[in-house]
Every structure is written in C-alpha cells, then in structure tokens.
Amino acid sequence: MEKRFANPWWVVFGSIFGLIVGNGPIMQFTFGVFLKPITQEFGWERSTTSTALVVGLLGTGLCVPIAGRLMDKYGVRAVTLPSITAFALAMIALAFFANSPMAFVIIYALMGMAAAGQTPMPYSKAITAAFDDKRGLALGIAMAGVGIGAALVPQIAQYLVTNYGWRGAYVGLAALTFCLAFPAVALFVNTEPAVKHGSAGAPIARPGLTGAQALRTGKFWALAVAFFSVAMASNGTIGHIVPLLTDRGFSPQIAAGAMTFAGVALVAGRFVAGYLLDRIFAPYVATFFFVIPLGGIALLLMAPGQMTATIAVVMIGLGLGAEVDLIAYLVSRYLGMRSFGEIYGYLFMIFMLGNAVGPFLMGVSFGMGGYETCLAGFVVALVIASGLVLRLGTYAFPPERRGPPPSQGAKPAIA
Predict the structure, then answer these.
(1) Angle of helix 120-130 relative to helix 306-334, nearest 10 degrees?
(2) Distance, first Cα to last Cα, the chain
(3) Alpha-carbon distance 272 to 234, whole Å?
(4) β-strand partners of 260
(5) Please, are residues 371 and 361 in contact by the beta-carbon 8 Å criterion?
(6) Is-annotated flag, keyword Transmembrane (predicted)?
C-alpha cells in the first residue's frame, strides 16, 4: 500500500464507501423501487420481473468463490476494480437494452456475476490481512457500510425514479457505484496475493489451509451449516415480517416502521459484534448473535402486541447485522489466511443460498396454513447453529497477543 495510506484504518475507511454501494444495497434493496415502474411500463407480471433478482443473486453466489480464488492469487484490486466497472456497466445496460423480460433477466444475471467482486468478501479479505489484534472491530466498522447503503441507496433510487424514470435511475446508480467504490478501492483497499516470493524466489504462503484442504475439514462444514441456518432463519423471517404482522392486524405503517428498526439494529449489530470479537472468544460471540434472533422468532410465535413485535424485529435485525463479520473472523481464526478469499467465497455462497431458501420456506409454510410451522423450524435451526459454533474448539490461528501465530512452515491439523 502507498506510504501515505499505510495506516491500516484507511482500508476500513475505503471499505465503508465500497460497501455502501455493494451488491446488497444496489441489487437487493433497490429492487422493490424499480419493480412497479418497470412492470407498469411493459405490462410484465411482477413474478416474471422478480425472477431477475433470483437469477442475479444466484449468479453472485456461484461466482464469489471464483472471485475469491482470483483475489488470493492476484490481490484485491486486480479483481475488484474490473468487477466494479463491469457492475456499473451492467446497470447502464439495463437502462438501454432491457426491453423484454428475457433481456432484463439476462442482464441482471450478468450484473449479479459482476457483483461477485463487489460483495463484502474483498473488503473482509483486505481487513483481515491488515489487522490482527483489532480485526473484529475493524470488520464491524467496515461492514456497517452495508447497513448505511441499505438505508440510503433505496432513497436515492426512489428520487431518481421519480425525477428521471427507472432507466435514468439505473444510470444514476451506476455512476454512484463507480464514483464511490472505484476510487475507494483504488486508493485505500488492497491486499497482496496470498503467496509471495522471498529473496531466493521461493514461494512463502501465509499460514492457513488451502481451499481444497478446508473443504475436507469438519470445521468448514460446521461453519457452513451454521451460517446457512442463520441466514435461512433471519432472512426468511425478515422477508415476510410485513405480511406476517399485517395478517395479525397491524397496520402497514406499523409493520413498515418495524423494518426501519430492523435496519438500525443491523448497523448496530455490526459494531457490537466487531467490538466483542476482539475481547471475547468468537464462538461465544457467534452464539450470542444466533440466540438473539432465536429469541425474536420465539416472540413472534407468541403473537405479540405492537411493542413486543417491534422488539422481536430488532432482535432479528441484530442477528442479521453480525453474520458477515462473523464469517470473516471465524474463517481467519480457524482456517487461516492462505486461501481466505476462496474459503470465504464458498461460505458466502452457502450463506446466500440460505438467504434464498428462508423466504421460500416461509411462503410454502403460509400456503400450508400459516407461518408458525416454519418459524418453529427456524428456532430449531438456530439451536443447531449455536451448538455447531460452540464445538469449534480453540483457534487454529489465534491473535498474536493471545499466543504465538503458527510458524510459516507448520501445517495446521485438518480436522
């Protein structure tokens, strides 16, 4: 990194701006803003148009491990800067070429694939490489950018749609993404490739497992099942919280207001989780943030009143706010930094699959008579997730202040 930006907190600063316009705020949180004007202009069914989001998210999930592997080999900037550019160009393509449902879905798929390099993964990789002792706090502060983007970007999109139409809005979001994220990454966010070369030309790898080794460990699959369960439960419940509350007699305004509290809790969850990770054994922190949404879902099963329902949504939002930080931190401590991008990519793909499965299961459950059966299943899933992280054991790659790091030549046990 350039000497004028050698302080690692510049990486956090740049990551905040990059994540404000990351794949979540841009693709997921603005989609509802565009849905009605697009369907009205073309007369498409909402279900047809919504297919684009599913395909786009699938494209992101499938490509994140590839992007991570490339970052491990070539560094963050070499992959993320072209990804940001392609992501912005895909939005411009939506504005000019999305004149049929097929074209809209195809372009959205391409946008999702480009977004693989504009997920939290590259920023998590850069931060975990730059920090050790304060890694959790740095991750928490940076990942708050996702919450800021989730709150601000849909408002910007709505303003652009109102004043310039949905096509102009996509061009505006493309410009916003490029102007915020590209310079942030170019100036502040970077890591060197995972494998460097010493003075004699021999490769020197950072401590940790390769992607192939990680896939053969019980710890990887424990993390995979845990974060799939948490994503499924938390996002499944939040995705249906408005109709769930209105079905119980709450006004749409109250239900929407509860979602606002969830957004605030999401940002708070990232700060709190990051702060705690540097001070408390990470599986205990993870369990805490798994049990909180479990309690929120349990409250919803009790058919609560307005105040209790709001508390339940806040509890679920706190869990949502901590997941990405926890994935990055736990990967760095249990599987190491050697192939961090690739391993994080696999877990992020599984995490996104959980995001998709949760709302689907809630819809199926409602069609079979109500949300209660699915909510009860989510409680069980969160109990399983908590048990899995508590069984991870001691860190394989502890912070330096808690013990000596593994030697460069040492091979960690593959369990």
Answers:
(1) 60
(2) 35
(3) 18
(4) none
(5) no
(6) yes
* The pLDDT of residue 404: 42
Closest CA to 118 of 22, 10, 247, 218: 22
CA neighbor of 76 nearest in space, from 177, 173, 242, 193: 193
Q: Which two three-digit tokens encode residue 107?
A: 């372009």
Q: How far is CA 286 from CA 96, 238, 270, 319, 381, in A?
A: 44, 19, 12, 9, 14
Block residue for tokens 């990887």? 220
pLDDT at position 14 over 50: yes
* Cα 181 to Cα 188: distance, rounded to the nearest angstrom: 10
For residue 153, name the pLDDT band (cuts at 50, 70, 90). Answer: confident
Residue 96 has a CB neighbour count (10 Å cut-off) of 11
Give pLDDT tens digits for 298-338. Answer: 998 886 677 888 888 888 888 776 777 899 899 999 999 88
Whose CA is closest to 346, among 135, 80, 72, 150? 72
pLDDT of 403 strictly over 50: no
Cβ atoms of residues 58 and 50 within 8 Å: no
- CA distances for 20 relative to 100, 120, 154, 187, 247, angstroms: 30, 10, 11, 16, 33
Q: Please, are residues 330 and 340 in contact by the beta-carbon 8 Å criterion?
A: no
